[in-house]
Design brief:
Elements: E1 7-13, E2 18-21, E3 27-40, E4 46-58, H1 59-68, E5 74-87, E6 93-106, E7 124-127, H2 137-140
Parallel strand pairs: 4-6
Antiparallel strand pairs: 1-3, 1-5, 2-3, 3-4, 5-6, 6-7
C-alpha cells in the first residue's frame, strides 16, 4: 500500500524567487515562504512565531513563479516534502526540508512593488508538471542543497 506526502502552506515570500537551469536545460525556481502565528502564553504575553519553508518549482511552474512572484507576495503552495543532506564548509553534516511544488496559487500582492502579473480576487493558480519521483536524477546533483 502506498503513502501520502502532501504539504499545504500559505505564507509570504521572504525574497524574490531565484531561477536557474540544470545541466539538462530544465528550469528550476526556488523561493522561501514564511508563515506567521500569534499566540498567548500561559502568563498572558502575546508571542509571534514565524516558520520558514524552502520551495522548489520545476519546468513551466518554475518559469511562472519566477515571472510573477516577488518578495512579500502571499502564496498558497501545495507539494511534496523532501529532505536534502550535504556537508557544510565547516565539515558538519546538514539537512534541510523543502517543498517540491505541484501547485502554486498567487494570492495577494506583496510588500515589494509588483511587476504586473496575474491579479484576481480568488488568486491565480498554476500547476506544474512535477516529475513523478522528484527531479530527474541527473538534475539533482546540480542543485546546491
Amino acid at each position: 500500500m502506498g503513502g501520502l506526502n502532501k504539504m499545504l502552506v500559505i505564507g509570504n515570500l521572504g525574497s524574490d524567487p531565484e531561477m536557474r537551469y540544470t545541466s539538462g536545460g530544465v528550469p528550476v525556481t526556488s523561493f522561501s515562504v514564511a508563515t506567521n502565528r500569534r499566540y498567548t502564553t500561559a502568563s498572558g504575553d502575546q508571542r509571534d512565531e514565524t516558520e520558514w519553508f524552502r520551495v522548489t518549482a520545476w519546468r513551466q511552474l518554475a518559469e511562472q513563479c519566477n515571472q510573477f512572484l516577488t518578495k512579500g507576495r502571499q502564496v498558497y503552495v501545495e507539494g511534496r516534502l523532501s529532505t536534502s543532506s550535504w556537508q557544510g564548509q565547516d565539515g558538519q553534516n546538514r539537512t534541510s526540508l523543502e517543498i517540491n511544488a505541484d501547485r502554486v496559487v498567487f494570492l495577494s500582492g506583496g510588500g515589494g512593488g509588483e511587476q504586473g502579473g496575474p491579479r484576481s480576487q480568488g488568486g491565480q493558480g498554476y500547476q506544474g508538471d512535477p516529475p513523478p519521483d522528484g527531479p530527474p536524477a541527473d538534475d539533482a546533483e546540480d542543485l546546491p542543497w
